[in-house]
Each structure stands twice: as C-alpha cells, then as structure tokens.
C-alpha cells in the first residue's frame, strides 16, 4: 500500500499531471514573462517524465517495439501541433509543415545519431550496431524524404515548390505504404535486424539484467507517456507566440520557428537515445533516430495532404537549394556511417558538424 502511494506521489506521476493542468490553465491566454518561464520549466519536466515512461514501456515490450512506441507517439502529437499552427494561419504557415519535417529529419539523422555515436564511442571506443536494420531504416527515410520533400521542387504541374492534388495524393499513399512495410519488417519479419548488438566490454549495466516491469506498471507508464507528450507539445504550442516573437526579435528568418518546434518535440527521443547509447545500446539509439525521421515524414505528409482539403493557402513542400545540398550530403555521410556496422568518435563528430551547418544556415540562409 505504501509503495503504491509513493508511486502515485513520485515526480514521474506528478509532473505529467501538472503539465496537463498548466496546459489547461494557459491555453488561449496571453502569458507574461514570468508565466512563459514557468511554462517552460513545466515543459522541461514533461520531457524528462516522457523519457522515463518511454524507457519503462521499452523495457517491458523489448526492442524494437519500445523505440517504435516513442517515435509514433511523439510524431502523432507533432502532426497535431503542425496542423493546429497551420489552421491558425499566417503568411508563413504554408511552408511550416516542410520546415518542421525537414528540421525533424536533420535533427534525427545528424543530431540524435551524432550524439549517440559520440557518447557510445567515448565509453566503448568502437561502437557496434546492426548494419542490415539501420541500412533498411536509412533507405526508407531517404525514399520518403525524396518523394515528399525533394520532388515538389522539380515538378511542373503546380507553380513553385508545390504538388498538384494528384501528386500530393500519390506522395501521401506512398508514404503510408512505405512506413507500413518498414514497421512490418522491423517488428515481424526481420525483428532481429533491429536488436542491440553486444559491445565487446566487460562492463555490465545493471539495468540490462533488471527484471522487466509488470504489465500494470507498463500500462500505467504508457498512459503517463501519452499524457506527458500531450503536455509537452501542448505547452510548446502555448509557448509558440513567445517563440515567434523571440525569433523575430533576434532577426532569425520565420522558418526557424519550425526548427524550434522540431527541437522541442524531439527532446524526449534525443534524451532516450543518448541514455541508450551510454549503455552500449546504439542500435536502440539508431532505431529511435531513424524511426523518428521516418514517422515524421510517413505520418505527417498523409495527414497534411488530408488537412489541405479544408486548409486555405498554398502547401509548400519542396526544399530550397541550400536544404537540398544539406539533405544529399547527410544521406551520403549516413550511408558511409551505417554500412560498416561500427563507428568511432569521428563519425559522431561528422554528423554533429552537419547538424551545426544545418542550424547555422537555418539562422543565416
């Protein structure tokens, strides 16, 4: 009885509930500076709670299901956030989906991957992962991104970097089909391709041998994970006016708002990936990184295609020249990183330099 009471009073339970209460209290209101700071603190706590509950669920269901749960949960709410911001309008809302999805793609494939490889390599010197599974994930990400973000720049049916209705429908259906095929491959047909590879080390992590949580505990954490993610993305929406004002105040382009949204949404997965890498489970980190990028494109584009039926204004999906160069370079470097099935600090550093280039050029295009 005492243990149950302490569980209900733990920060991992209190913070998600507090986040939802703060979201309900702040929604639709103009916040002063003090309240903006308080909401930011609650948002950060929600991110940490989401990571904790995601790891509990992952420990119960095992890989690759654990990383899949977090990637899909985060992306579903990311999509809701994008649609909400697009409905609210604004002259730059037509490119918000592209800016956010591309930012999520770059943050995942350079930031999460680079941090994970660097953290793991610092401890194990040479970090190991499954090239078959990671290669399949990377190929799917590259195909999804090309069909949805690159082709609109070069098609001629519509002016500008837009798809015609028929092209958008094809891209949406192709995205769903690719994502469904990958999930089937990852969880059923070739699940062993996505399981962590044992590191050559005598260091044992006690968490690896800890008994899995009970079904009740896992279901409780799953519910609290969803609550945490709703709070995180909802509070990010509440903070969005302050974010937009801050972006404008420092002179950054409006497209940088999409980068900030992607950073906030991907924080739970980034922390979970880095913690997995620290334990030598780099494959789990790569599952999270590529799964996030894949879900961000494979679920966002079909939803935006459906929402475009009632959304006014253009839907700009095509990447600009600078973005195209960064995308191609990132895919080439990612292939060279994944194919050997092992990496050192150098590969992690290269990916992080690409991340820095993306962020710098997002600020100074």
If helices are DSSP runs of H or I spanning 4 or more residues, what is the number of helices? 13
CATH architecture descriptor name: Up-down Bundle
Please describe the biggest sheet, giving its number of strands, its sense, and whether it closes into a barrel: 2 strands, antiparallel
Q: How are strands sequenced across the largest beta sheet? A: 1-2
Element-by-element helix/strand order: HHHHHEHHHHHHHEH
Bin the strand percentage.
Answer: under 5%
For the residues shown, what is the average pLDDT? 81
Number of strands: 2
Fold and architecture overview:
The chain is mainly alpha-helical and 365 residues long. The protein has a single domain (67-204, 246-363), classed as Up-down Bundle (A middle domain of Talin 1). 76% of the residues lie in helices and 1% in strands. It has helices spanning 2-8, 11-26, 33-61, 65-87, 96-124, 131-154, 165-189, 206-209, 215-249, 256-278, 282-307, 321-338, 345-363, and strands at residues 127-128, 342-343. A two-stranded antiparallel sheet has the order 1-2. Helix 3 packs antiparallel against helix 4 (65-87), helix 3 runs antiparallel to helix 9 (215-249) and helix 5 runs parallel beside helix 12 (321-338). It is globular. It starts with a helix and ends with a helix. Residues 32-187, 221-362 form the Sodium/calcium exchanger membrane region domain. GO terms for molecular function: potassium:proton antiporter activity; sodium:proton antiporter activity. Keywords: Membrane, Transmembrane, Transmembrane helix. This is Ca2+:H+ antiporter.
């Amino acid at each position: 009885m005492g243990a149950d009471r302490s569980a209900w009073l733990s920060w991992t339970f209190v913070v998600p509930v507090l986040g939802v209460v703060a979201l309900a209290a702040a929604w639709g209101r103009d916040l002063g500076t003090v309240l903006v700071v308080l909401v930011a603190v609650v948002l950060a706590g929600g991110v940490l709670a989401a990571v904790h509950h995601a790891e509990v669920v992952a420990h119960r269901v095992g890989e690759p299901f654990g990383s899949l749960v977090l990637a899909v949960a985060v992306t579903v709410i990311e999509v809701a956030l994008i649609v909400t911001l697009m409905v609210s309008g604004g002259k730059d809302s037509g490119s918000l989906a592209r800016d956010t999805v591309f930012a999520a793609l770059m943050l995942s494939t350079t930031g999460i991957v680079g941090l994970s490889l660097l953290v793991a390599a610092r401890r194990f010197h040479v970090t190991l992962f499954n090239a078959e599974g990671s290669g399949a994930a990377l190929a799917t990400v590259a195909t999804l991104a090309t069909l949805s973000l690159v082709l609109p720049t070069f098609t001629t049916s519509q002016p500008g970097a837009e798809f015609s209705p028929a092209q958008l429908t094809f891209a949406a259906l192709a995205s769903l089909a690719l994502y469904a095929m990958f999930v089937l491959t990852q969880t059923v047909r070739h699940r062993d391709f996505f399981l962590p590879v044992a590191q050559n080390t005598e260091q044992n992590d006690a968490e690896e041998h800890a008994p899995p949580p009970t079904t009740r505990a896992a279901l409780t954490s799953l519910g609290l994970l969803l609550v945490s993610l709703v709070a995180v993305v909802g509070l990010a929406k509440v903070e969005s006016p302050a974010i937009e004002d801050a972006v404008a105040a420092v002179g950054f382009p409006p497209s940088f708002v999409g980068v900030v949204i992607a950073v906030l949404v991907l924080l739970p997965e980034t922390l979970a990936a880095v913690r997995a890498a620290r334990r030598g489970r780099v494959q789990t980190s790569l599952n999270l990184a590529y799964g996030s990028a894949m879900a961000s494109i494979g679920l966002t584009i079909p939803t935006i295609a459906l929402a475009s039926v009632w959304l006014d204004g253009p839907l700009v999906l095509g990447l600009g020249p600078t973005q195209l160069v960064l995308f191609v370079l990132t895919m080439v470097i990612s292939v060279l990183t994944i194919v050997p099935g092992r990496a050192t600090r150098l590969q992690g550093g290269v990916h992080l330099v690409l991340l820095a280039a993306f962020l710098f050029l997002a600020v100074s295009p």
